Amino acid sequence: MSAETPTRLQRILNSGGFAVTAECGPPRGADVEAIQRKIAVLNGYADAVNVPDNQTAVVRMSSMAGCMHLLNAGIEPVMQMVCRDRNRIALQSDVFGAYSLGIKNLLCLSGDHQSFGSQPDAMNVFDIDSMQLIRTVREMRENGHDMSGTRLKTAPKMFIGAAANPFADPFEFRVLRLAKKIEAGADFIQTQCVFNLERFREWMQRSRDEGLTEKVHILAGVTPLKSVSAAKYMAGKVPGMDVPENVIQRLAGVPAKDVPREGIRMCVETIAELREIEGVHGIHIMAIEWEEKVGEIVEAANLYPRPA
Amino acid sequence: MIVGEQKPFAEIKKLVWPYERLLILGCGTCVKTCFAGGEDEVAVLASAIRLAFKKERKPISVEELTIERQCENGFIGASAPSVARNQAVLSLACGAGVQAVARRFANIPVLPGVNTGFIGVLEKQGLFTEECSGCGNCRLAVFGGVCPITRCAKKLLNGPCGGSRSGKCEVNPETDCAWQLIIDRLTALGQLDNLKAYFPPTDWRSGSARGPRKLFREDHVI
Questions:
Q1: Which CATH number is B2-118's, of 2.40.50.360, 1.25.40.10, 3.40.50.2300, 3.40.50.2000?
Q2: Exposure of B84 in the CB half-sphere (CA atoms within 13 A)
Q3: Which of A149, A207, A254, B2 could form a disulfide with B94 if both were Cys (CB 3.0 to 4.6 A apart)?
Q4: What is the pTM of this model?
């Protein structure tokens, strides 16, 4: 694959297709079989698969290693990279390294604060922020130099992703921040999980009004809810998450044994609604520790089989 | 001001336990204002130490002295006779003061009695808040007088992050989201457009990245 070859995700999005990405959470430890099991159940159901970078600040197998396991299984990875743990030297070095291994989709994030994770006693880095990381990777691709201005003989040409949270405050500023990320170089956006469709629609409307959906591919995040307690936990304890009360009540309204099925059904319904929103170019399925349900969701949403 | 907090008494007691003649040295500037090491705190701590030693039948004499500033050699000199009479100095200054006193008196242990916290303000009675990281490159003009380097838990220059909720920070719901404050303030000033600009990576060389900093004011040297 030459450096100029678009990634599969890029090709699908640029040709006007509706993309499906999924998330594969790496294990806490070096368990190869654990990640291979997750990869096996995702295989064929997503155009590309994200590997988070120590998500929620819990120490896990590195995103780059997880991406290699995906590549070995013939699945296109999206490497997530956070600014929490590495300074600009290490970040750039890992972008080079990842690209050299064949990882060509990169999601640039600030990162969950360490106080939520397994090592609240750790120091964070935040040498640069996600906006600056996006621009750094864009500069590598477009102008062939690193942050120091040094010309790179072989510059990484990443397909650049960024995150957006339509549910965080200040709401009015969220669209401006999206505009800044696009201006900095984001090619695609993966949003926070959508449970509050009304608010998501309003954010999309404002993004369209600013002409942003013409400039970037927005993949709406979805998460199937496994249990009432998981829904309540996300509603109350996970920063930046908006799980409205009616969502929790609907789950709580079915017999306990049917809750997981209801969660999947709600997720499929959400996908159907999202597909109707102008400017939504795909979905990003974050089935947290429930990867085996991704195939069922994709099939039920009539998004299977995936294009070659 | 520099905001600090007196160490827990048990820790202080352990620090001074080996000595029989102790000078508690207060500082009349920042730590006085934040109730950690001014004249009053020196007196209270001295009584507590005397009592604690008495209860365990261990002799100690505690001398009390507070000078104007421990971070300035010109003021430290005033403490020389007291220092000479004692076996150890328990300094209630910030970390800079402790080190300046230690540098001045080479042959006597200078112990810290205060945990130095941050550069902050007295927001209201009894409440001190961190406001400045001493980054050496002040950008408060563009951020409406609210520092994102210090007051955003992720030091975001192009914020806010996805965890801002109802004006509060995800890391601590009792802390205002710096970016909410910045946006509110710039809105009030009619300068919200400031934030459309891209803020490039910080050059940390003006901060602490290159080790301890020095400021030399040749124009003030006679």
A1: 3.40.50.2300
A2: 6
A3: B2
A4: 0.95
